[in-house]
Amino acid sequence: MGIQFSVGGYAYLHVGFIFLGVLGFCEAGLTSSYVRNNGLSQDMPLDSDVFKEPPGYNAPQQGHITQGDHEGKGVIVSWITPDEPGSNSVLYWPANSRIKKTAHGVVVKYTYYNYTSGYIHHCTIKNLDYDTKYYYELGAGNVTRQFWFLTPPQPGPDVPYTFGLIGDLGQTYDSNRTLTHYELNPVKGQTLLFVGDLSYADSYPLHDNTRWDTWGRFIERSAAYQPWIWTAGNHEIDFVPEIGETKPFKPYKHRFFIPYKASQSTSPLWYSIKRASAYIIVISSYSAYGKYTPQNKWIENELPKVNRTETPWLIVLMHCPMYSSYVHHYMEGETMRVMYEPWFVQYKVDVVFAGHVHAYERSERISNIRYNVVNGFCTPITDDSAPVYITIGDGGNQEGLVKEMTQPQPEYSAYREASYGHGIFDIKNSTHAYFGWHRNQDGFAVEADSLWFVNRYWKSIEETSVAVK
Ligand SMILES: [Fe+2]
């Protein structure tokens, strides 16, 4: 046990499994002894306060923002008006100025079986100043709502920046705990990296899309104030030909606009952004990724473009983990691993975050790329150029936790635990970042696993220069 302190009634205990990962692969991995007693979690009822519609006729609701360009000077603001299109403009101004500007967006709408969406607005604000607080206002007439956001610092190697990590959130009482713990974490996440499976509306009969609306209202308290960087999961596919819904990702693509063209992508399901000292590549587990496919071509072209002297931290987000030692979803990420792991090692990706498995797991730095079917080398080995793989699909959705693990724990698995929680990836400078995983523990958020990351690019540069001397 370490230091304990509390913020807003939530205590944070720093329990140390620190440095486990840096001790080396020969150290046995740890399966946490902490076992939650409630695996299944209930959705919050429709009349919960977190789902409340804002007052006033046609009041803008479900506000959320994401990055709107490749560099971090743009923001996409999205919101829904329920009754009529209303204003499609965003009024915005820097906190230290009274000069207000207006950006104009687009409005879209969709139907899903017997559901018709509200008016979904998306407005890209461009050419903002870096590292600046902006207020913005949505709506018109008597019903306007104000929010604010901070733009990131200009991309650069030593820019500190803090990312939150949440996956598979849903809209249960546990989802609310996870989001609350993230908000109350004394280390403040500045941008949330979301690793897929958002609302779980598809768990309801006919994929009841009103549960997309409740989810939009639930996350607004965070997502309207800091960008959520989206990854699509299997619960975003919404492909139900039996009821005539044959367009995969229809609700997701209408509700969430992504700046994919800024990274020369041809689909919002895979794209990249720079943010501060990080370069983030988002890929799609549920789009074709084999050789010759658009996604494969894009990733092949994208990885060599990353300038690690500008953005040393290379982070990949996907939904389905490539390494997971839980029984549920076992091997589902294997074909993507075969395709992309060699590139992740070649380009020294620092960390790969995934969701899908409703639990937490962190790997050692390992690779399994020497296996070529005929040579029999099929066990992952320690690899200093390989990323750490972190599964963080433990947001708290109504499907519950997965508790069954493959036994014994494989050597490559450094830590695993079937609990809900969130992560914080806290970049200190070009060479060091601190990752903490915060378990939801009955009103507390406990840092149950953590690791100091040493940047792969700079580490290899240092080692090369030492070798040359
Ligand atoms: Fe999933």
Structural notes for this entry:
The protein has a domain at 160-196 and 269-467: Purple Acid Phosphatase, chain A, domain 2 (4-Layer Sandwich). Helix content is 14%, strand content 30%. It contains 6 helices and 28 strands. The strands form 6 sheets. The protein has an 8-stranded mixed β-sheet. The two termini are 43 Å apart. Residues 168, 197, 233-235, 319, 356 line the site of fe (ii) ion (FE2).
Write the layout of secondary structure elements.
Elements: E1 4-7, E2 10-14, E3 30-31, E4 61-67, E5 75-81, E6 89-94, E7 101-104, E8 106-108, E9 111-112, E10 115-116, E11 119-125, E12 133-140, E13 143-150, E14 161-166, H1 173-184, E15 191-194, H2 210-223, E16 228-229, H3 250-255, E17 271-275, E18 278-282, H4 294-302, E19 313-317, H5 334-346, E20 351-354, E21 360-363, E22 366-367, E23 381-382, E24 388-392, E25 413-417, E26 421-427, E27 432-441, E28 444-454, H6 456-468
Parallel strand pairs: 2-28, 3-25, 14-15, 15-16, 18-19, 19-20, 20-24
Antiparallel strand pairs: 1-2, 4-5, 5-11, 6-7, 6-12, 8-11, 9-10, 12-13, 14-26, 17-18, 21-24, 21-25, 22-23, 26-27, 27-28
Residues 168, 197, 233-235, 319, 356 line the site of fe (ii) ion.
Organism: Sesamum indicum
EC number: 3.1.3.2
Family: Belongs to the metallophosphoesterase superfamily. Purple acid phosphatase family.
